Amino acid sequence: MADLAVVMAVAAALIFLGVLASKLSDRLGVPALLLFLAIGMLAGSEGIGRIAFDDFEVAQAVGVVALAFILFSGGLDTEWRHVRPVVWQAMLLATAGVLGTAVITGLATSWVFGVAIIPGLLLGSIVSSTDAAAVFSVLRSNQVSLKPPLRPLLELESGSNDPMAVFLTIGFIELLLEPQTSLLDLVPLFVTQMGVGAVVGYVAAKASVGTINRLRLGYEGLYPVVLIAVVLLTYGVAALLQGSGFLAVYIAGIVMAHERLVHKNSLKRFADGLAWLMQITMFLALGLLVFPSHLGPVAGRALLIAAVLMFVARPLVTAGLLSLMRVPLRHTLLVSWVGLRGAVPIVLATFPLVDGVPQGEVIFNVVFFIVITSVLLQGTTISAVARRLDVAAPAEPARAGALTPNRSSEAKTNVHEITVAEGASAVDRRLVDLTLPHDALVVLVTRDGESLVPQGSTIVRAGDVIMLVAAGASLARARVVFEGQPPEHEC
Predict the structure, then answer these.
(1) Fold for domain 2-394?
(2) 401 forms bridges with which residues in the sheet?
(3) DSSP-derived secondary structure for 95-159
(4) What is 414-483's CATH topology?
(5) What distance in Å separates the CA atoms of residue 340 and residue 373, rounded to the nearest whole number?
(6) What is the pLDDT, as a whole number, of residue 399?
(7) Which of 110, 394, 420, 433 has its CA 20 to 30 A from that of 19?
(8) Which segments in the chain show pLDDT lower than 70?
(9) Angle at 80 between CA 332 and CA 153, to 5 degrees
(10) Are 466 and 445 in contact (CB under 8 A)?
(11) Peptide bond into 486 cis (omega under 30)
(12) Structural domain boundaries of the chain?
């Protein structure tokens, strides 16, 4: 029991330090992941903490589970109507862009390290995906956002390009360990991974929304528990069916964000907090794995590969693909520079080690060095580059509390007071079940002089006074739901 108490105390201390590091990152203008990794390295066997941890299988398991929740939270926080105009640009970058980046970086790796093409392409695949969470944390800390449509483009690209990087990594590991396998054999694997992952994610989201809305649990605290089960089940089913679990959970998050869901606001806040916990845990574990003394021997060559990745591979691929979509040059340049590497490459770097790939430890150390270089160089200059290219916008205000709308408040709206009429279709039904327009938001319900904070499970009664944010046609449609007949005139 004493050993367990020590483990619990140390884990709590490291997590608390991670939380403090996230606050410090806002002041310093650097991604929080860099500080998380630094804490892990300081606590490791070569740091002041002297914690011996070299179990790559455990670290990989922690990373996979953490990424599943992080991707789901990212999808749940994505507004489909915002990303829809850039969906094809993002998908092109998330597939062909990842492949092109992996090939160019892989060829450079093969030349720099003097190894065969396949090992080089493996390393290129591992570092081929981007991390938007790190990008936006830097922008937020510098009170800068990005003009539309750059933010949704980067969000959708980074959220959807991880499955492609995972597929390429697994594919090239298979080519290394089973020489009889050919590149053509990877095509069915790709189709299966992406197709099954997309279908499972969509079906799981639809089924989960229907289930959660009909559960009518007696305790609101149980709904987050159900959400955890949804994420684990979605990833697990997709993986068992040979699909991409990462793609499945991301799509599930996007679809659920678009649906009416009971306790949606509280579930989104819970998912966001859980994602932060997963990020801290994952980076601390990965930092513990690193032996700083092992980075020195590969530093010079790793720096060359990082330079190729940042200044050649990402810009060439991005410019080539976005030119097909007629994206403005300034936007293309920003997207090219924002190819920040983060959690996924380090997690993927554990795959060769666990699978017994020759020189797996060298690959891990090189990838770790590349990520650190990318974060230090790109992460600290994103705000300056955005301002220089005139694509920066004022930072978005911080989110408010429970009454914060899920949807954009860009449209001009007014608050209207509506009394629910006898016989209206809304009577004796839950708010989540009403056919309200997506841009109509119930912000307060007054019943018998008592104010109620509306939840998706709130049942509407005749005589309730509804405070509604809506305008135009949406207001008219909402009035029909609550008053039972079209209004003679709009307020």
Answers:
(1) Na+/H+ antiporter like fold (1.20.1530)
(2) none
(3) IIIHHHHHHHHHHHHHHHHT--HHHHHHHHHHT----HHHHHHHHHHTTEEE-TTHHHHHHHHHH
(4) Alpha-Beta Plaits (3.30.70)
(5) 10
(6) 46
(7) 394
(8) 1-2, 26, 29-30, 132-144, 394-414, 485-491
(9) 10
(10) yes
(11) no
(12) 2-394, 414-483
pLDDT of residue 184: 83
54, 56, 70: which is closest to 129 by C-alpha? Answer: 70
Q: What is the pLDDT of residue 407?
A: 42
Position 185, amino acid: D
Dihedral (CA of 319, 323, 329, 334) sign: negative
Helix axes 117-126, 98-113, angle to 10 degrees: 130
Question: Which residue pairs from 171-176 have beta carbons closer than 8 angstroms and sit at least 24 positions apart in sequence?
Answer: 171/125, 172/118, 172/121, 172/122, 172/125, 173/122, 173/351, 173/352, 173/355, 173/357, 175/118, 176/118, 176/119, 176/122, 176/357, 176/358
How far apart CA 349 and CA 123 sit, in angstroms, is 8
Per DSSP bridges, beta strands 392-394 and 144-146 are antiparallel
Q: Measured between alpha carbons, how far is 124 from 101 in angstroms, rounded to an integer? A: 7
The DSSP element (H or E) to which 278 belongs, if any, is: helix 264-289
φ, ψ at 418 (rounded to 5°): -125, 130
Cα gap 185→175, rounded to integer Å? 9
- Single-letter residue type at 311: F
- Can you tell me the distance from the alpha carbon of 340 to that of 368, in angstroms, rounded to the nearest whole number? 13
- Residue 144 backbone dihedrals phi, psi, to 5 degrees: -130, 140
Query: What is the pLDDT at residue 485?
Result: 66
Distances (CA, A) of 193 to 161, 168, 352: 13, 11, 19
Please state at what angle helix 56-76 crosses helix 150-160, rounded to 10 degrees.
140
Taking the C-alpha atoms of residue 298 and residue 404, their distance in angstroms, rounded to an integer, is 49
Beta strands 441-447 and 414-419 are: unpaired
* pLDDT number for residue 266: 85
Angle between helices 98-113 and 162-177 (to 10 degrees): 40
Q: What is the pLDDT of residue 397?
A: 53
Tokens at 288, concatenated: 């513990």
pLDDT at position 10, please? 83
Pair 164, 103: CB distance under 8 Å:
no
For residue 478, what are its two tokens? Answer: 């909402």
Q: Is the C-alpha dihedral spanning 382, 383, 388, 391 positive or negative?
A: positive
- DSSP three-state, residue 418: strand
Distance of CA 189 to the CA centre of its chain: 24
